[in-house]
Protein 1
Amino acid sequence: MAERSFAAEVRQLEVPAGTEFHGEGILAVTKALLECGVGYVTGYQGSPISHLMDVLADAQPILEKLGVYFEPAASEAAAASALSASVNYPVRGAVTWKSTVGTNVASDALANLASGGVTGGSLIIVGEDYGEGSSIMQERTHAFAMKSQMWLLDPRPHLPSIVKAVHDGFALSEASNTPVMLQLRIRSCHLHGSFITQENLRPKFTLNEALEAPVRDVNRIVLPPASFLHEKEKIENRWPAAVKFIQEHQLNEFIDGDIEHLGIITLGGLTNNVQRALQLLELGDLWGETRVPMYVLNVAYPLVEEEVLRFCQGKKAVLVVEEGQPDYHEQHLNTILRRNGVDTAIHGKDLLPMAGDYTVTALRAGIRSFVEKHHPAAFAKPVPLGMPTLPVATPRSAPQPAPVIPASGNDIQLPARPPGLCVGCPERPIFSSLALAMQAHGQHHISSDIGCHLFSSQAPFNMGATTMGYGLGASSASAFNAGKLFGSSKRAIAMMGDGGFWHNGLATGIGNAVFNKHDNVFLIIDNNYSAATGGQDILSSRADNEHRSTRHPIENAVRGVGVEWVRFVPRTYDVNAMRAALSEAMTTEYDGPKVVIAQSECMLNRQRREKPKVAAAIKGGERVVKERFGVDAAVCSGDHACMRVSGCPSLTLAPSGDALKPDPVAQVDESCVACGHCGEVADAAVLCPSFYKVERVHNASGGDRWLNSLRRQLLGWWHRRTHAARAERALFPLEALS
Amino acid sequence: MSLSKARSINIAILALGGQGGGVLVDWIVGMAEHEGWTAQSTSVAGVAQRTGATIYYVELVSPQDRPRPDAQPVLALMAVPGDVDVLIAAELMEAGRAVQRGLVTPDRTTLIASSHRIFSVMEKTTPGNGLAESEPVMQLLRDSARQLVLDDMQDLAVKNGSVISSSLFGALAGSGALPFAQSAFEAVVERSGVGVKGSLAALRAAADLARQPVAQPKALGTVTGTGMDTAARALPETAAAPAVQPLLDRIRADFPAPAWNMLGEGLARVLDYQDVAYGREYLDRVAAFTRFGDATTVAEAAHWIAVAMSYDDVIRVADLKTRPERWDRVRREVAAGADEVVGTEEFFHPRLAEVLGLLPLGLARWVLASPGLSGWLAPRLDKGRRIRAFSLRGHLQLRVVAGLRRWRRGNLRHAEEMAHIQQWLDVALAIAPHDLALATEVLRCRRLVKGYSDTHARGSSRFDRLMRAAQSLRGREGAAAALASLREAALRDAEGKALEQRWSALQLPAAI
């Protein structure tokens, strides 16, 4: 069950043609796929396109009604390989993933696909995870498009443009027998807007027809001599065909402006921010009017030489706006212009940042310096004779640039807020246990992986040295197996989540460790889902899923590839058991891979499922015991050791309420889900006895009530006695008893 | 060429995971679209979706501004410094961050911020008080916004049975920053159909609040520093218990008035901890510091001698855990009615040291003298114990331990603690005649000694180090300030890095 349900939203996928559709970018893309008569869709979840996979999963019934096949692939490589269905058959297929990481994983299949070329339209929708909010290395997908000769669409961040790009993408792919990448930036994926719908279409050619009447063409297989033929085809047929299509269907846009001797060449995805920058410079307006002519590249690759020449012809200078590095477009444009003897000056990374987000602020600065350099009059007050004058401050009506914040403001050190594990996360006790185990056996080298567990690299745990990719945690400890050979006293520890494990960790990590007789410790964190990407089901998920086969234990898999030493901890919150398993793995005489599987369900998903049930049960009069944790302020020492070994967000601080205790004391806030970790760890780490668990019985049974009243009578008597005794040595009146 | 002067209304929202920032955005967009406006929203969460901060961005365009009916506005996807009309921050430090990012400008921005704090991990893990101060940030907000709505929106929401997104939405309605009537705000909440009643109540309360001239943060109204200090109660006229009256009279007779309140707190603590005689001992110890004629020194002595004499031991914990006031407090915590069934489970982990501490001096020394015996005992005692304090059995167990109070004076732990206290006070008293300020800092150093087991051990060892530092600082210029800085450093991190740095900065001999 995914973190977010789109069950309600997907109903919009069936609205009749001509309806105004309101929703998120990813929902619009899904609708567009159906309008294009797509035959099959697959992919792998990951921000920012996780929701696209969730929408497709929730839309399964609608897809089946239309004869569209969908599956969540095991990895991006698996998804890309599925596009081979469109090599020999005229069936349209689409795949999606997070890029560049997903494209890295998929690139073997993509390179082969692009080499042989496609018959049916093949669309690769990549969530370009670049800039603010990104969770990965800062690279661009553009390089993959260039190296494999795939076309790259980068539409405006505007739902009608994104929807059109899906339609254009399939057509372009078919017209040029080339897979087409459609790039959506982070903000475009989460964009809420509207567009006018078209009719959903059933696939023109179905996968059944393909299965009934298979065809093959040896020239589509990447083997010499075909592979050499493919390279020729790319250059001699497919590229020209693509260029022809792009021109005929005007995929790129030309916007006129009155400062004709200048121009801005921008990628479609950056257009809106460029136009906002122009508006703030009073060179454009809210409705897309601009004084500086623009050439909008909704097709980021390939560049159309004729269009470039047409736009630059007679211009003194143009500014290229492409985010990130290297400056692919700037280089390519220079080549085109010089080859054709056009002397238009090309500006780009000389006036705009070489690296990082192209924020409106950065674009405003770059465009301002570009225009000032070549047309200072643009910023001049109109004066007689139109003599160029020095630029003056922008008029009142324009928003002023951000004023300098009072010195007092800038030097305030605001506490940083690194992302961390959720309230009650089952992974927290694993890291507390590992920390305690390392207190006993010394600090160890830890190879981390991708997933929620990577938050262990942040405070308060601060563990983990590297992360090499999804499911590569285990294999990234390989070299440290040297310790076994050269007699190190410590073993390397490698972490991996269940998501990464099935993504490829089983083969590249565990299989590799068995084959090479690794002596390392492998900690596999099984929270029942691909949790970090939004809680999608995977092979080892415990949930029943009508469309998938789940409940395949990780333990069976690792034993299946030859691991002998396995410790399975079925409740990660048991810190003592968890610590014991890890300590044993660190110290045992056993020579070979040591796998510790720590399994407890992701608390986010658990709560989403259980909370409503519990509420209903209480409402329905059933006996329900509700738990939460608390701290005795009078007992808490204010040392905060519990925060250092737990860091649960529900553990916070409060005034001690005691003039003799100046340090704030621990407090458990209402977000507590009673996972019990604070109590367990206080016990295991021998911290302090201030933690307690409260149990409130809803709809108590007769027995409960009888016992309760008995207790209250007897203890009440005792209470009055002790209370009276204390009253006899009290300076201030004691709190009255209820 | 002629350019339109029309602008979009730009709204940035900073919220933390789980604060319902998405809901707030959906309401704003839903309302605007319902009113015929063009609305675009986007967000950047990334890995922040778990507990970090998420920034949402919304742009609204009025239908009246359209130059042509078919004109489509080109909307940006990120907040631009100097071009933000409304900034909503669901937590105080996030509001400060927004200002530091330049997203709040005096000529343009209506700032709606909640003054409540959600502490960062860094703040929480500091052994002492590592919290950021709120007031400077609130001043920054006052200096930076064109219009400011600043109050505890979290508290307001909870009081009205809702969540912070509702109170922030209400504050937006009341601020008048958007050209929509409050009825439009209420309508979209009603259409959303979930938790409508509470949401509307919070919305209306916040809207009214936002209409008042610059709302002052009530929750943090009288905050000084981080708002974590508790002032000492005023010394009562008469003691609650007649037996205590003589001690109260003694405070008024023999001690400087400025120290009375702290003496009252201290006396109350030690009386509650042990008995009236113990209270007398306490006053005797503090009295030794009156002769230097400085009330501050006496107050500090009153404070820290009380803390030292009421050291945390198993007896104290068992007593605190079985008090009727606690029974009531726990019920309040889970909002349980008087007749509802509530129970607790306590987490204890006493080890050999703690248990031996309870034994009579002679017996304890005898056990310690035979490593065989203690070696046999240790593993048998060293395990976590769960006790149900509200059950008859659990209550009995704990009361038996609490009852050991009568014999506390005879046990090992007490002997050790009293010796430790004496050493400490001797150091202070020896220094006082020559450098009263330094002696006062020596008293304050007791703050380091707290907690149980490892925590207590770490604190004590640092305390002992500071005592040695005090000795070698004697006679130095600014010795008091130096010792104070060492104490602050010792409270900054558990590893003791800060202390080491300070130690070498002061060129103290590494050996000690």
Note: Residues 16-202+210-248 of chain A form a domain with the Rossmann fold fold (CATH 3.40.50.970).
Protein 2
Amino acid sequence: MHSVRKKRLLVITAIVLILSVAVGLVMYALQQNINLFFSPSQIAMGEAPRNANIRAGGMVVKGSVKRNSDTLAVAFDVTDFQHKVTIEYRGILPDLFREGQGIVAQGKLNNDGVFEATEVLAKHDEKYMPPEITEALKNAQSSTGESAESAQSTY
Amino acid sequence: MFPEIGQFSLILSLFFALSLASVPLIGYWKGNRLLFETARPLTFIMSALVLVSFVTLSLSFLTDDFSVLYVSQNSNSQLPVWYKFSALWGGHEGSLLLWVLILSGWCSAVALKIRTFPEDIGPVVLSVLGMVCVGFLSFLLFTSSPFARLLPDVPADGGDLNPLLQDFGLIVHPPVLYMGYVGFSVAFAFAVAALITGNLNSSWARWARPWTAASWAFLTLGITLGSWWAYYELGWGGWWFWDPVENASFMPWLAGTALLHSLAVTEKRGVFKSWTVLLAIFTFSLSLLGAFLVRSGVLTSVHSFAADPTRGIFILALLLVLVGGSLLLYAIRAAEVRSTVSFGVTGREAWLLLNNILLTVLTLTVLLGTLYPLIFDALGLGKISVGAPYFNSVFTPIALLLMVFMAIGPLSKWHHTKFRVFFKVCSISAFIATFSAGLVVYCYGFGFIAWLSLAVAFWVVFLSFSDWFGKVSAGTKGIIPRARQLPRNYYGMLLAHLGMVVTLVGIVLVSVNSHESMLRLSPGDRATIAGYEFQFDQMEQVKGPNYVASKGQFTVYKAGNAVAVLHPEKRFFSTRQQVMTEAALDAGFTRDLYVSLGERLDDSAWSVRIYVKSFVRWIWLGGLMMMTGGLLAALDKRYRKRAGV
């Protein structure tokens, strides 16, 4: 074969090889590590898978935060003003975690319908609202406008 | 009065930017020298006007002029004076002004050095930079002016700077990061100017190289500072989160690294010419994409500014115009570019090509992971997030592979290298590296990935030193004179590569050898972590300039001796009604002790995070080494010569 062509072939083979390995890796990793977000309403309607890594979030319901007196375990409810879901977590909550604040949790929904969080995220600016929650609230609001409005006023 | 001056000079600077973007180019096409040479004075006037505007906004901040909306949102009369100044870039509008200031600063630097390029290209470069300035200045003026007034209802006091930003990190991280981000627009301008003038021989690579190296060095430092800041400020001791905005700064870094290497090949060998041009365009596009991701609020991130869709659309349009335009130009001109020199598949070109392929693949995997939630949402498949495990599992193997080759490249010669030349040194190094890494892993009981990474680290260190030693020991002059003769460029490379290794070692050890625990502690309690005894001595209330804090005291003992006293704080900022964690840490070369307070649980007990982080400083030490390497390369003597000499 002509040497220039041979070179080109070599280069192209190298690129294709590396790219295919990378694509394989990406596909595999994406399959493992995508976390879908579910709103409390979606969870209540049974749309969320059990025992799979997902995200859930909403506004923390006032007066729902319960702490264990000996350990760092804590449980609280989040709501989109339609439905509630209980989140259990063991660890230190972020600074901006507050009742009435929007949060997102990462973890698994167990068979009792309780969300066991491995991570709780609240954003670093009190004006900032995670987009998932904004949308979940909007969706919940549009399904029954009135009740959501009244719920919001209590917040 | 000041805000109006600022606004006015910003508008004027837009006019000068418009002239800069057009007049020299008209001069170029018409062959009119006079018009062509206006580029330099226009650049200086534009930059001076932006500077005036920046100074007026700083004055508004320093004098607590809360009639300015932006000041009232981001500052407060109680704020310490240095934070008042840095609060200028604590929000979207001001940080964009900082961005524009730095952009015009780079323009002026190019204008100052214009005599080092051939006469016919310098003004074209400035003109292209002028177009970029037009884009950002109009973005600033039309969507996000920081000079808007709150009249006649002037608030008595400001809404305060986000407490998280009231830190030394805010003073240094954004300016340095922007220096890097924006600096790539110079490389972009060179590439586009080369396309416009058709002057695509390898010389443009030579002029673009020091500028690219300098911006790369700044970006490296900016990312390093950001990582260090996040580590001590956010209070959970992480140093990298694969957060979309971190990725936004990391992608131009990866592409810029590829660009740095491919520029070297283009300059020295005259090959990969069109690829290098394309890479320069892409690196800058990724900087713009970063700006889009941060400022449009399309992605969930810790860095998000309060979202405003019109801004997102504006940057997207800017991105399309600048990138689309340059790609179009590229499509028209690229056919004319043919590498006349062939390259050897066994020479250094081939290794650098491999470097470029791997870095591009890395950039694409990060890009995909970052944008995947957007794509997923746009297709109506639901809201997702792509977690750190994705990035870790994809990034690690490719990056390790890259580092394996990173050591071989410098050993090889241009065009053709005989296999046996480096077979011996490579096999010896591979043997020593696997063995010594195995020994470390065996002694400390680490896993496979740690072994692999450490082996790669040792491999790079051995090969780099044997390369250096080979270069200085050949010949008769003696080691020291020869070592001093090697170009700065070479030492820059060596330092950057070793910096990469230092960072790798830090990353590996901090992830396999750290001890973390979250505990419930009351004053008087003790906890033992990794051989260190943490005693919770007491808790007291203290008052800061604009906050009140609960301040804890922890004494750390090792083998009965006190080694450190740590004071973690929980601060309450009354203006914003916001709580902030101030972690306390005892930094060390091989370990950090890290204590941060969670929350008060009952009368006396607190939730407390205690970490013993192994070798975490090495991550940033490596970053500093890489930055120094980049600066050494930028300051190489070869680039100081005037054109044509």
Note: Residues 1-160 of chain B form one domain.
